[in-house]
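Handout, tutorial session.
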Amino acid sequence: MRALYVLLSYIAFFFAAPILLLSRKTRMGWKERLGFYSKELCLEKLNGCIWFHGASAGDLLSLLPMVKLMRQQCPERKIVLSTITNSGWLMAHRRLEEHVDAIVFAPWDIEWVARRAIRCISPGLLVLEYTEVWPNLIWEAKAHGAKLALTNGRFSEKHLSAYQLLLTLSGISLSTFDAMMMREEEGLKRARLLGARPESTVVTGSTKFDVLADNSTEEELDTLRNAFGFPEDARIWVAGSTHEGEEALLLEVFQRLRLKFQTLRLVLAPRYIDRVDRVFDLANRHKLKVKRRSQAVSEEVDVVVLDTMGELSKAYQLSEVVFVGGSFVPRGGQNILEPAAQGRAVLFGPNMKNFEDCVAVLVGRGGVQVSNKENLEKVLSKLLAQSDELWRLGKMAQAAVEQVSGASERNVRLLRECLETHGD
């Protein structure tokens, strides 16, 4: 069956390559995606390194606390970080570069590409995130003698048969993994149904809950505040990680709220930087004074479009209330924990299927789920009229995140056990 999977992966890549080459998410770094890493990287003594892989920016943020702990506890080990999306690569260079020895694009899951990547990086431990089960990469890593681990593991009921088909076709079993660290009990049961070994499969929780508040200095926050160009008495509403179709709704709500709260100002942070111009034009069409964060301040504005990487966390700290996007469209939500961890009341829409665990933590504890734009306007209007309530919800949200933290430490302890049994 493995030979069939290898053949199918070649065929699938042949047809998918043009799409991948043109996609805004994957069009960078094609040499590395084909396993052609720099000569300097391949010549560097990475043998026995720890290789962390997360598909996107959100996955890498979940890995951040683990990477920091591994750097502290295993200083003798090199750490390599890989990702699939362009935004993940850019974010990694801004948020994780100081904690790792190399940041690369992950190889496409084609046999000879995966083999070349494994031979170059030569990991002692390959740590995959979430549902990143890539059969060829796993096969080649195991053949190389590396230990395998999955963190923040999650296998949904809906896709269980698809996972089973993939594992059967590829000749890979979850029993190959030396450690499988699942988010919740249901995920553990499904992993064992798919072949994971009971003794190596445990529930450790989600490291997303360990993404701590941004440690920005007052000087950094003042710089961003001044760059916004808002008046000194502005009450800032930040809408983070927004997607196509959401900004128009948010701008309508903002305009109506301004009739009641004249000092209210809005920061729009689109999930993808290449949508900034579109969002800027949309705000203009709403007859609002708008600027990009990177533009010089020439006059006071109503709306700022965040067009820089790595500053959303700071923007949350400057806000009075937060809305997190990807939740009014069929995207499945975005990370609602980051603003919560910084003591902000967090609002989000009905579509949060990819972040149900986060919703369970925050709803009723500083997080408010709204059903539509009318409901959003109603809730915001009520909260903005009660500053003390906004403050109370923010503190509740922060406490809720702190109560469920600790998965990173549990995971790192298991990863170190894997390394200690590695015969190198």
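The second record follows below. Compare its token runs with those of the first.
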Amino acid sequence: MLLAFTEQGSGPVVVLLHGFPLNRAMWAEQIQTLSASYRVIAPDLRGHGDSPAPDAVYTMDAMADDVVELLDGLGVVEPVVLGGLSMGGYVALAMALKHPSRLRALMLIDTRAVADSPEAAKGREESAQAVLKAGSPRSVVEAMIPKLFGKSTLDQHPDRIETMRVEMEKTSASGVAGALRGMAIRPDRRGEIAQITVPTLVVVGEEDVIAPPDEARAIAEALPDGRLEVVPGVGHLSPYESPRAFDEIVLRFLQGLGRGESD
């Protein structure tokens, strides 16, 4: 799988994985900020952005393998800091468990460790079928918008919401369906989290209704070296809704790693 990607900066490698049905454009402000001190790599996961969208079920393990293949192709042999939001967090968890030697540290952002309930999985399949029938992701995008953003973003920043809506609607029907079906069968990771020993930053928006703060707290507490940060006044897209606050949290974490600290 040849993933499209943005690469900027030099130094220790930081890889950022976007959510569903987004693409690497959601990380624009983080790329600008972090690349002053780090080599930032932000791919489009399979089926999203400019990456290929095969007609298939996109499992989280397969997407993690895509990221490893990209790093190999870029000659990145050293362990990286891997960050993932929402679906990108599912992929990051899969990579941390399947390819632990490739990680120096982990950032789990507005994501979950629990599997879909049978009802949620059924809903994803119904959405996948509807999107394929329509040939457009619009129905999924419209349903997601109110859940993706915090109240203040919805009320005060319609321009930023519209920017993300445009990016989401670029995602092909096959890409949306493949990701929905892959997320529906993802495993429950709660029993495996304790295997992840690298320093891990768990970030969540205070108003996130998709991956709520209580779930983020449970993930952080289950990790051997986890710490939780809550971004006030934002929802599921905390890096995009409040980039300054989010970037400050991430930079503190990365700078701690640079000093050889894990606390």
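Points raised in discussion: The longest helix spans residues 118-134.
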